């Protein structure tokens, strides 16, 4: 692993229930012992890491499904790897947030929460097999703010079954009313191993486009500014620095089953069983690496800084890029309309 890598992703695969849209590496554990074995293995791996990280992100699965004692054990092992200003994010389901859990977060320097709200429509939440209600989400935010964790991002999914424009209004108003400073709106995807796929659910792409246009239009009238295809924040201060590392294709380390990392052009994944997984390496050639640079960086409204590496990527694919779709401003390569990213990438691929 690269000693200069400044970003870390950790995957917690365990959930109490499986959402119908989910295709991440996840499982309902048989017992607490199974979870503890996995966490102990993670800690052993963490103990061998010498790096200090600018960002740490713990995702899942449902990381805050872990007991307070296991969470504390895991988070405590990471304290040697943080700076005083490390962005330390953990994904949370609203229904598992408790005061004792947030005390564990505070004790271990977790300072950013990615809250999986998904929708403010309780009936649709049930269809997704989410067990929380919108009131649970409100209560979770109150607890977080009580303990002065104010850097909260709320995740939503649009184009869900039965979702209407009024539900999108409700989601945006929910964030405004609860003083949320970061919103993510992701389009529903039917992944291969999801329950929705097995149910043969078909996505309405026309409706998807209409709903995204509606979200963009509504958020333009608020304090939220779009900085990436699916992400809005009230200021640069509240942008996700960890995700920005992905989009700017900076190296990141990944541990945990199913976790993907990128170090020294090695785009690797952790494969195998939950208690015995290993790194599967995939060394990118220049063509693949440059494609990733463009594919990730052009997601950003600010575009790609044309430094020496990124300039090489642009020069490599220059003839395949529709010039009417891009502009270069202040030495940055910018997609004029990031909603058309897929169209540009089709030509590159």
Primary descriptors:
3-stranded antiparallel β-sheet; pyruvate-formate lyase- activating enzyme; 349 residues; 15 strands; 9-stranded mixed β-sheet; alpha/beta
Task: Give a description of the structure.
With 349 residues, this protein is α/β, with parallel strands linked by helices. The chain folds into 2 domains: 7-247, pyruvate-formate lyase- activating enzyme, CATH 3.80.30; 286-348, no CATH class. 36% of the residues lie in helices and 23% in strands. The protein has helices at residues 32-47, 68-77, 99-107, 122-127, 134-146, 165-177, 195-198, 205-220, 241-247, 286-297, 308-317, 341-348, and strands at 7-12, 53-60, 82-92, 112-118, 152-158, 182-187, 225-228, 231-233, 253-255, 260-263, 266-273, 276-280, 304-305, 326-329, 332-335. The strands form 3 sheets. The protein has a 9-stranded mixed β-sheet, sandwiched between helices. Strands 10-11-12 form a 3-stranded antiparallel β-sheet, with no helix packed on it. It has a 3-stranded antiparallel β-sheet with strand order 13-15-14. Strand 1 (7-12), helix 1 and strand 2 (53-60) form a beta-alpha-beta unit. The two termini are 29 Å apart. The relative contact order is 0.12.
